[in-house]
Each structure stands twice: as C-alpha cells, then as structure tokens.
Amino acid sequence: MLLQYTWKFFFNSKKAWEEIRDKDCSITRCYLSYLIIIAAIAPISGFFGTTVVGWQIGDGEIVRLSTQSALLIAIIYYFSVLTSVLAISFAIQWMGKTYGSDIPLAQGVKLITYAGTPIMLVGILELYPVLWLNLIVGLLALTYTVYLLYSGVPILFKIPSDKGFLLSSSLVAIGLVTLVSLLGLTAFFWDWGFAPQFV
C-alpha cells in the first residue's frame, strides 16, 4: 500500500497523478500514512552506514562517526525533511493564485511527498556510504523527481500545462533555496558545537 503509487509512476505517471489528485489525503494523513515512514529511510540508513560500515577515501583508513554524533545528525536530518516538505507546500499554496489555481495546503503536501519519493527512496544507499555510487544514483533519482514534479503539477492542480511548467520551475528554484538554507543551517550548527565526532 505504501509504495503503490511509486510503481505506477514508473509505468503510467499520468494515471498515478490522477489517482493521487482524487485521493482524500489531509495534511495529517499524508504525513502519518506515508511521509513519516518514507522520510525515515535516509536518516536511518545514514546512521547505520556512518556508524557501522563507515567510508573510505582512496586507500585511507575507514572513517566512522560516533553513535551519539550520528544519532543527532540523523534526527536533525529527519526533521529537516519533514519541515522542508511543509515549507515548500506553503510556498505552493502562496504561489497558486499567481498561476490561476487556489491550491489547498494538503495538495501541496501531496505533490512534494509523492514527487519526492524517488529521492527519499534512494536514501537506502546510505547504508553503504560510497560517494561515487550515492552521487550517480542520487542524480538519477533527482532527475526522476524533477520529471514527476513537472508532470504532476498540471494534473494535481488542474492548471494548463504552460502554467504548470512555470509553477514547477518556480518550485525547483524554491527547492534549491531550501537546500542552500539547510546547508547554511548545517554550517551554523557545526560552528556551535554540533560538528560530527569521528571514531
């Protein structure tokens, strides 16, 4: 049930978006039945990968994080994903009027949650933190996420394709701003003593 739309996106994304549009999903229900589970994949995998498996640069020693440090990072990572989905959903609701659609907040949450599924699922690779592998597969997942965003906006919000393209492009820009903001917060936290502790 949890991943039913994920498989449909691969074979018929238009039909999947139509089903999601017609699905009754409040913000609470979207969060509790789907997002809190799928958003936990990467933080849990990252915790295990950085504390148990570790990573290596070239022929150097295997590097691992302390359990306490990795746990703190995983918790912050998890809540950052949940908060980012809600923040971008508010931006969708705010921008909807510009593009001729009165978009409820729950629809924005649906869009970001389901379009972001590939990038959240690929977080399983953090179990084995190899930079080149995570980068290549992550870029493929990001590409598919952007495709789902562009294909889903006109269907989910019932707006013409040209306005959907503009709204999707705006959302990509907002996503990039959100990412840069999270990187800035990371630097801030590291400066205040929350930097990773290696073992």
From TrEMBL:
It is found in: Membrane. The keyword Transmembrane applies. Keywords: Membrane, Transmembrane, Transmembrane helix. It is a multi-pass membrane protein. It comes from Bathymodiolus thermophilus thioautotrophic gill symbiont. The keyword Oxidoreductase does not apply. The chain crosses the membrane at residues 31-57, 69-92, 104-125, 131-153, 165-190. This is Yip1 domain-containing protein. Pfam families: Yip1 (PF04893). Residues 7-182 form the Yip1 domain.
